[in-house]
Specification:
Enzyme class: transferase
Keywords: Acyltransferase, NAD, Transferase
Number of helices: 10
Number of strands: 9
EC number: 2.3.1.286
Structural class: alpha/beta
Largest sheet: 6 strands, parallel
Protein name: protein acetyllysine N-acetyltransferase
CATH superfamily of the largest domain: TPP-binding domain
CATH architecture of the largest domain: 3-Layer(aba) Sandwich
Bound molecules: zinc ion
Oligomer: single chain
Order of helices and strands: HEHHHHHEHEEEHEHEEEH
CATH class of the largest domain: Alpha Beta
Distance between the termini: 20 Å
GO molecular function: NAD-dependent protein lysine deacetylase activity
Number of domains: 2
Length: 229
């Protein structure tokens, strides 16, 4: 029987690969899971695309503010336990753009898809405070369109981010997947860089299709991580 606590104690470098499920316990719904509830022009694959931002920045802004910004959200026990472990010996590679890992104090974080609370004006590239963006996506100084520094559909992952993620996966002798069904590429493809000798585990309520030899820790992640604390 796989013992997560023991595996964590023995590991030299723990890399967590995380997704939306880690932040739902902080009250941040997974914008992708609403599925069929969106009208076509409101589906995330379009609303959150580089094309939409270029053609309809106001619609893009409205959608992002309505569906993605939850500034009152606070880190939960999963974020806190991961921060404590990785500050000592490891890395978090997350698909989440909510910044909650850093808010929990994590120092070794690769934000694979960027961070909603880091914004810039596309015209002058000045950093913009998110409070201003919540009110308007136009930079008052020059009329430029402000955007969050997140990876949109149709945009590549920045090469330095990709390299940092690959390094974190390669270094790990224990890899733990949390809060993601592991179907979103290129994130899911990162697992191919794992050391063949590394231990791989996934924490999820329902069983996931995992590479051979991977351990499934079935259960609610908040409970699993609370038990580790
Ligand atoms: Zn500007």
């Amino acid at each position: 029987m796989f013992d997560l606590k023991k595996a964590l104690a023995c590991a030299q470098h723990v890399t967590f690969m995380t997704g939306a499920g880690v932040s739902t316990a902080s009250g941040i719904p997974d914008y992708r899971s609403k599925g069929g509830l969106y009208a076509d022009s409101q589906r995330p694959e379009y609303a959150l695309s580089a094309d939409n931002l270029a053609a309809h920045h106001d619609a893009f802004h409205e959608w992002v503010v309505k569906n993605m910004y939850h500034p009152a959200a606070k880190p939960n026990v999963i974020h806190r336990v991961m921060a404590a472990i990785t500050n000592e010996k490891g890395t978090i590679v997350t698909q989440n753009v909510d910044g909650l890992d850093r808010q929990a104090g994590a120092e070794h974080v690769v934000e694979f898809h960027g961070n909603l609370y880091r914004l810039y004006c596309q015209t002058c590239h000045q950093a913009i405070d998110y409070h201003d963006y919540l009110k308007s996506d136009i930079h008052s100084a020059d009329g430029g369109v402000i955007r969050p520094d997140i990876v949109l559909y149709g945009e590549p992952i920045a090469s330095e981010v990709l390299q940092a993620a690959v390094k974190a996966i390669q270094q790990a002798d224990l890899l733990i997947v949390v809060g993601t069904s592991f179907v979103v590429y290129p994130f899911a493809g990162l697992i191919q860089y794992a050391d063949p000798k590394a231990t791989l585990a996934a924490v999820n309520k329902e069983p996931l299709e995992l590479p051979l030899g991977a351990h499934m820790v079935l259960g609610d992640a908040t409970q699993v991580f609370a038990d580790l604390a």
